[in-house]
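Worked example 2:
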Amino acid sequence: MNDPTQNARRAELLDLKFRLRCEQSLSFFFSEVAWKVVEQDRELQWNWAIPLLCTNAERVMQGTPNRWIVNCSVRTGKSLILSVALPVWYWLKHPSYKFSFYSYSAALRRELAGKREKVLRSEMFTKYWGDRVSLPVRTSLENLKNNQGGELLLLGPGATGHGSDGMIIDDPTSGRQARFENQLETQEVHVKENIFSRLNNTAGPILLIQQRQSPEDLSGTLKSEQGWHSTVIPPIFEEAAKIEVFDGTFLSIAKGTLVDERRFSQENLDEMKRRMGSRAFQAGVLQKPPSGEEIIRAEWLVPYDYNAGNWRSLMDSVIISCDTASVGTAGHSQWSIQTWGIKSYKRTRLVGGIPCSEHCNGFFLLGCTTRHMEYSEAKRIITVLSQKHGADGVWIENATHGVPLSQELNKAGVLGVRLVSVNKDGKKCNRLWAASSAFEDSRVYYPLTEWGEQWKADLVRCTKRLNERDMAWDAADTTALFLLEAMRSPGISAYGHIKTWAALESVSGTTTVTDKPLPLGELPFAPVGYIHQWELKRDAQNLLPEHSDEPLYGMVDPNGEVWDVDETECKKLLQEGWSYEHANQTRDETSDRT
């Protein structure tokens, strides 16, 4: 028979067992209380890193050690464990304890504070510990206070006048700050002088949770100081490692170990690396930021034969990219006007050892003019290039002369004029770094010409330490502006379709249409025919083709497009089966010349 009294007593014992187990184990409290309250029905994907972080956090709160750095990649639950569950759990036995929290982002500080409050006000927490710890009806997220004198205080950039017993710093540096050494130094000084000083007792525990971004970030500098212990947990261990457990033992990790294969499989990590670029992946995912200062490597740039044929006719889109200058004289920054072609094509890459085809966009530098010039001259050049190439857009940096230039080009009937916004800090190396994944992914092509080689040399010379007044930055910044805008523009996504793909592959002197994917890095199409190469003279007043002193002839290519060519090229094309424009004839299909 069911005895109500015994059933009630059994339920009391089970509740007591649950409550005691939560109080004894942060790992259990996180999985059974904090996670279920915050994430509700979302399944917790358990892995060995969770109890490791919880065990070490418990020891840190006991003061052995009292300085701890945690470096994990995104979406690993580190903030929910250490910034949300840990302080609430510690209140179960020490309800009068005062915590302080710091992050570079006010939004992140308030988001984590809201999650802590959600746990504290939850039905589950109230059932088991409401008689011990409770919050007033009205309270501020900036300083959550309980009925026992405990506090969860948020520290902003101007934190003064507030003390705490322990401190948790979660994400102290923005991605933008991490790219500049002077900003990292400023942030380090601020944290050490204004944040660390908030401890009531200098021996109080400090937890630093950070996703690595730079060798000089706060984690990097503190690791070299005495007394700091660190735990680094990347999603995959590329080398064998030993992780310190603060109970006096070490956890041995074999090479190639995945922390959570369901969330970060080898295939997923390979895709992340390709999209992010190797250096961003090494820093933000593997937690091993590279120390080099280079941004673009020469071997990432893919050359193409500019004189092989009509590259313009193969492009799905053509964009004129422009970086303006305030003064058109020497000693100041230069104008840079670049013509870019965008081509969607298919290629093959290995995913988990299996060849897979994908669509991606290639970015082809079709022209580049970088020099000092007056505003009126730059406007005329952009107009001529836009009309000649049938450009789909003109993208202009939203700075200096950008606004009036865009307005005047719009009035002149130039199509697709758009102002491109830049980062608020205006740092050129910041933009080039952000665009570097397209280079590393072998999707940026440059012409084998004198001006193409100069563009390449300028790009490679631009490093993190190169003064941004250096002339090399003018062309590099125009390139970065174009790539960043192209990769985020609708219809020109980094790996999306633009048009139905039909590759033109040059095979033994003939042209064939094929959908066969080619190996990564190979160009799956080739240009058809010849075109007259349009190169603007450096003379500011001369906007005609380089051979403008010779008579021009209208020629029809195999696709029916008309091109202006000089007499020499005219004779060559006639021999290849091209026709004069007025004859409206097409190329002899038996010709074996592409």
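The two ends are 94 Å apart (CA to CA). The chain has 17 helices and 22 strands.
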